[in-house]
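Tutorial, part two.
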Amino acid sequence: MHEIQTLTLALPFRLGTVNCYLVKTETGFILIDTGGSKQRGTLEQALANAGCQPGDLKLIILTHGDFDHTGNVAYLRQKFGAPIAMHRDDAGMLERGDMFSNRKRGNFLLRIISSTLFGFGKSQRCQPDLYVEEGDDFLAYGFDAQVIQIPGHSLGSIGILTADGDLFCGDLLENTEQDQPALGAIMDDPAAASASVEKLSGLAIRTVYPGHGQPFPMQGFK
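Running the prediction step on this input gives:
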């Protein structure tokens, strides 16, 4: 059994919000995504309020490599001693601070300003401790869930599907417009994204926890 707490952090310049998910298991906590570094104090307070102290955080899972999801991961690993797991295809984004390292549609201007926009400097860069792929599970960390590869937003985007049917989908799906779940607004590879959505339709998913917007029942996605 597990409990899920949504930690919603503001993005800079009123660009909306991003979600992190703190999962409480029988043996500790799992954090899925970490928000941007400019909201670090808010995230730390939320973790403290949930009773998550150094030693209690067993694993940090990154659904993909964008700065608004990875901005606090290096800091949290140092503070809590928790290893970092992500897909290898997005690792260059975290290691080099290049949000377009694996994308087809690189934007030169965004490449220059994005790290400054989200506060992702050299101190935020690091190497993952664990590379995960389709079908890998997290039982060793007390979390009954497995990896689902769902490229589209980025090549290394993954979903985390629990045994209870909860899916953490990163930015493949979102629910930001009047409770109308939809494909994420930014897709680097639309064909891959469509294939990923089709893949999800064949899985036993109860509730979707997106990177942006409110969680929603999978049956509400069309």
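The longest strand covers residues 3-10. In part three we will examine how such features are distributed along the chain.
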